[in-house]
Amino acid sequence: MIFRWNRPAWDLVWTNGRLPAALLLAGAAGVGKGSFALALAQAALCTQHTQGTEACGSCHACRLFLAGAHPDLRLLEAGGTEEATGETATGGPSSVQARVIGVERVRDLRDFTEISSHLGGRKVIIVNPADRLHPSAANALLKTLEEPPAETIFVLVSARPAQLLPTLRSRCFRLDFRAPDAAEAHAWLRSQGIQDAETALAHAGGAPLAAAELVRSAFWKRRPEMMRLLSSPNTTAGELARAVDPEELGSFCTLLYKWCGDLLSLNLGGRVRYNPDYAKSLSQLAVNFDVLKLQRFTKELTEVLRYLEHPLNQRLVCEKIALGYTRALAAEEA
Questions:
Q1: How far is CA 174 from CA 21, 158, 166, 286, 313, in A?
Q2: Which CATH superfamily is domain 4-73+98-178 in?
Q3: Contact of 247 with 314, CB cutoff 8 Å
Q4: What is the pLDDT of residues 204-230, one digit of tens each?
Q5: Which among 229, 235, 241, 313 is least buried, having the fewest CB atoms inside 10 angstroms?
Q6: pTM tops 0.90, yes or no
């Protein structure tokens, strides 16, 4: 699917009627880059264009694509593990595992790129998200892009393109994706049956797909209870910690980080950015807290967000965060 706000990017990539050998789709999460990449792949593989640059949707190639069985398409997604040998604080060996695209998966593409197309047309490789390429995988991909195989299109998708190797970025034709304006985002959300999404859009950075996913999540339905606890200066660390499902630690940390951002903004004479529906509660809370204490806590929260994908005792982290927040808002140090 090509969302209306991404139509200019679609027209740009087809300007010369021929796709570049490698593209980088860069932009915030939730603006439709993944859908764009799939639409581009289908159009590149389609053998009977009936709508200009878009896929016909009915030829043999399109039917295979829609069934998820096209032999000339490869999709590399994060989800595997890659071991990195290092040392622990005591000097012993350690194994670090994270959700990455490993080097073996990139090397496995070698046969795919070297053999002829099954259907006699192009071949397409989508890497999403490309910023999850393990360093060795990124280097292996770079070697392929230095001498790109004929009639093979690489589509790299990333919300954090700065984390890609500069040499890898330089090999790609870059398309930047931005969120639509507020009116268009609201109109699209209403078309999806979501009427009141101002706050969700603020939390999603204006990205409509991310806002829709947020509104439909179980965590968002529990947000009013979270807000009630965060708004009250009498909430204890135990109450707050018990209200958090450890499996939703990432969502809670992100919510709390933005809540603290609104508090600090108000204290410094700014405005509520993320939680306009709780502007009154934030204003009341912003009167008495210690700015330095909340800034220190926000820095600690940033560290937690950075390491969320590492093995953590989630319940222990929930309790630590809850204690840190209640202490940051306390009149005196605990």
A1: 11, 11, 12, 43, 39
A2: P-loop containing nucleotide triphosphate hydrolases (3.40.50.300)
A3: yes
A4: 999 999 999 999 999 999 999 999 999
A5: 313
A6: no
